[in-house]
UniProtKB/TrEMBL annotation:
Domain of life: Eukaryota
Annotated organism of origin: Tothia fuscella
One annotated Gene Ontology cellular component of this protein: cytoplasm
Domain FAD dependent oxidoreductase: 1-336
Name of the protein in question: FAD dependent oxidoreductase
Length: 367
């Protein structure tokens, strides 16, 4: 989604540029198609830690940015004005229920009347807050936008899939006119500028980022919640928030967040969230899953929703790799020489929408 947003921003805002996308796998096979399709600001959950690390003023600015980001996603799709993209991607605005499982959170204490909790069909919860969000079928959204860009800019956009980049170097004066030589397994590409949209894999091309941006494997699941759970997928989504837990003895980490959307047509519930040992979570392999999380994710709905049978029926579980930064905020902007090993002239970034939120650590860099 970052690559798509950047390509779109460049093509629309800079008519003299041509854009070549070099993708190691198939188009949209990374986290962008494997996620929960929840278009949300994570601020409610992350705000306390933002205040702790960056102070209240910056925390508010970041929170407002994440809300604008959600709005921009809808604006971008609306501006494309393609009914097929809307239909296929099932993009929709929803009311998000933020379900709090314990009364005391680090900074938030919220207790709702029993009536309100009942109104939403919940049990075993301390309270509920209501907020705005969106939901989407992410693979269809991003491939739909790529298709739109290819159609609109056939002369200026080239997409090379299954073309892993192995290095980027400054071109030597006798090697050609392009400022950079990008080496790929299929040959070299010359470019005047390079933007890395490589998420969890950024440190592979930029080794000084190792340990600063690192992969975290997340699980997603599709579940059948049974016939008694009303299908409000067209108008509602859910986040279940509990205290973050770390058990040093077992090495288990619980992120304290489950996020849930529902497909309005099929009724499938999409539930994601992590509760697993660090060795499983710190992985860049999305052909495997986090085994503990893969079981626990089926206990979420029955625990908090009255009308869910004691067990939901698992339909599918899959994983995706997220890039996390050490301080939890996105990495964005010109790369310093200490990261690239090259001295670079800095130029401004064009306006770029990052798409959905929870873009935890993507490097978008202008060299
Ligand atoms: C299970 C799960 C659930 C999630 N749920 C949500 C959610 O509900 N809502 C939300 O907002 N966010 C969610 N996220 C987070 C969101 O999916 C990511 O933040 C977002 O997809 C990051 O997009 P990206 O384009 O930066 O990275 P990616 O989609 O990972 O794309 C990076 C691309 O770079 C390519 N690449 C890497 N190295 C190279 C190389 N050397 N050469 C060529 N290509 C390379 C990769 O192949 C990949 O296609 C979830 C993530 C996961 C894993």
């Amino acid at each position: 989604m970052t690559g798509c947003s950047v390509a779109k921003g460049l093509l629309e805002g800079h008519p003299h540029l041509t854009v070549t996308v070099l993708e190691a796998r198939g188009l949209t096979r990374g986290a962008s198609s494997r996620n929960g399709g929840h278009i949300v600001s994570p601020s409610f959950w992350e705000f306390p830690s933002l205040v702790e690390h960056f102070g209240p003023k910056a925390a508010v600015e970041i929170a407002e940015f994440t809300v604008r980001n959600c709005e921009k996603t809808f604006d971008a799709v609306e501006a494309i004005s393609d009914p097929e993209l809307n239909d296929q991607s099932e993009i929709r605005k929803v009311q998000k229920l933020i379900v709090l499982t314990t009364e005391r959170h680090d900074y938030v204490r919220l207790v709702e009347s029993e009536g309100a909790v009942k109104e939403f069909g919940l049990h075993n919860v301390a309270g509920v807050a209501v907020s705005k969000a969106g939901a989407v079928w992410p693979y269809r959204l991003w491939t739909g936008i790529w298709a739109y860009l290819q159609k609109k800019y056939p002369e200026r956009l080239t997409i090379e899939t299954y073309t892993p980049v192995t290095s980027v170097a400054t071109t030597k004066s006798d090697q050609g006119p392009a400022r950079y030589t990008i080496k790929t397994l299929l040959g070299d590409v010359g470019a005047a500028k390079v933007v890395y949209c490589t998420n969890a894999y950024s440190a592979h091309l930029l080794p000084p980022l190792r340990g600063k941006i690192f992969p975290i494997r997340g699980n997603m699941s599709a579940q059948d919640a049974g016939p008694d759970f009303p299908n409000l997928g067209a108008s509602r989504s859910w986040s279940v928030i509990s205290k973050r837990r770390k058990d040093l003895a077992s090495g288990t980490q619980n992120y304290g967040l489950y996020y849930i959307t529902r497909n309005p047509h099929t009724g499938h519930m999409f539930v994601g969230g992590e509760d697993d040992i660090l060795d499983n979570l710190l992985s860049s392999d999305d052909s495997r899953m986090n085994p503990m999380s893969a079981k626990k994710v089926f206990e979420v709905l029955p625990k908090f929703y009255q009308k869910t049978a004691s067990k939901t029926v698992p339909l599918k579980v899959w994983s995706g790799i997220m890039g996390f930064s050490k301080d939890g905020v996105p990495v964005l902007g010109p790369l310093p020489e200490m990261v690239t090993g090259r001295s670079e002239e800095k130029i401004g970034l064009p306006p770029v929408s990052m798409g959905m939120e929870q873009v935890t650590a993507t490097v978008v860099v202008w060299l």
